[in-house]
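Notes to self after the call with IL:
- keep both proteins in one doc
- input above output, always
- annotate only the second one for now

Protein 1:
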Amino acid sequence: MSDDADGGESGDRDDAEKDPGPYPIEGTALVKTAALASVPAARVPALLTQVQADLGPRIDEYRRRYERIAAEPDRETFLVEPDHWETVADRVGLSERERDAVVRAHEAAVERIGSGSGRREEFDTALEIRSGVVIGVDVESGGNGDAEAGANGSESDPDGGESDPDSGGSDSNRD
C-alpha cells in the first residue's frame, strides 16, 4: 500500500486488481500462478482467457450443478469435483502442464477471495477435497449478471444472500 507512492510495480499490480482482462483471475493470484506454473509466465493469461471463453457460456450450468461459494458483480466462484479440470482441459485442448497452471490460478483466486471475505480457512479446507472454479460474468451486457445469479443460485442460498454481492461470499451457508 505504501509502495504505491513510488509509482513503481505496485501501481501496476493495483491496475491488475481493477482490470483482470478477459478472465476473472487477477493480482496476486495471477502473479503467484505465473511464478509457479510449469508453463511460461507469458502464456498464463492466454490460457485463462481460453478457459474463460469455455466456462462463461456454461455459468448457468454451474449455478445449477455446483455450490457457489462467492458471487461478486464480475465473477462467481464454485466448488467442483476434483477431476473437473480434466474434462475442461479435454474440451479446450490443454496439455497437462497447461491444465495444472489453470487449476493453480483458479485455486489461488479462490484462496484470495476467501482471504478478502474473511473465509480463507473455510475455503482452504474445501480445496483439500474439491477444486475451485472462478467464472467471470459479463456485467456490461446484462446477460449473466447479478439478477440471473440470484434467480439461478437460489438452490444454494435459500436466504437470498445473492442480493449483496459486496458481502464477499454470503451466498452459501453449507459446507
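Protein 2 (the one to annotate):
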Amino acid sequence: MIETLPPLTELLVMLGALLVAGAGAGFIAGLLGIGGGIIIVPALYQVFSVLEVPADVRMHVAVGTSLATIVATGFRSARAHHRRGAVDLELLKQWLIPIIAGAVAGSVISDLVTGATLTAVFAVVALGIALQMTVVRPEARLVDRLPGQPVRSLMATVIGMIATMMGIGGGMLTVPTLRLCNYPTRNAVATASAVGFLIAVPATLGFIVAGWQTPGVPPLSLGYVNLLGFAIIAPVTVTIAPLGARVAHTIPQTALRVLFGIFLLVASGRLLYGSFVA
C-alpha cells in the first residue's frame, strides 16, 4: 500500500536527494556505457540511509525502485535497438519463459531473505562484474557458440534471478555471458536491452506484491517500489546520460574500464560495510 505523505521538509529533502542520485546515476551510466541499475541501487541505498529508512527494508526498496525505472528505460532502449535490427528475436523467444521464471524466483527469494543478505548478493556479484571488466580480456571466450538446451534456458533463468535480486536490467550479466559464448558484441548489447525489459516487468510487480503490507517503507511507496524515486530517477537518468556519453569520448576506453571497476569496488565495499558493520 502507499504510505501517507511525510512533512513538507522531509519530502523536500527526499526530492533533492533523489534528484542528485538520478543525475549522478545518469551521468555515470552514460560515461561508462552501462545500464543504470547497477548505479541506481547503491545510490538509492545511500539516499534511504540518509532518510533513516529501516535497514531491514532499505535494500529491498532500492532494488524494487531500480527495477521500476528499468521498465521505462529498458523498453526505450530495446525499441531503439530493435529498429536497427540488432535484437536477436529468436534467442528472446527461447529465453522468454526462463527469464520470467528467473525474475519471479528472484522476487520470491528477495522477499524471504534479510536486507543484509540482499545487500551482500548485490555487493558480491558487483565485485565479480568489476573483476570481469578490469581483469578478463575483452576478447576472452569460453566456448565457440551458445550451448544448446537445457543449458541455454538455465543460463536465462539464472540471469533473471540474479538480476532481479540486484535490481539491474541484466545487461551487466547478459552481455559478458553471451560474449564468453562467442556471440557478436553488438547483438549481445542489443538483445540484453530487451532482456532487461523482460526481467524488469515481472520483477517490479513481484516487489510491489512482496512489500505490500511491509511497514517502514519510505513515503509514497507501492510495496517495495518508491513512486517518487521512480518518477524522478527515470526521466533524470535518461536526460543526463547523454552528457556522460559525451565526456566518455574524451577518455580512453582502458581508463573507462578501470574507472568502472573502481566504482564497483567502492560501491560494493560501502554496501557491505553499511549492512554488516555500520
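Annotation: The chain has ten helices and two strands. The beta strands are 221-222, 225-226.
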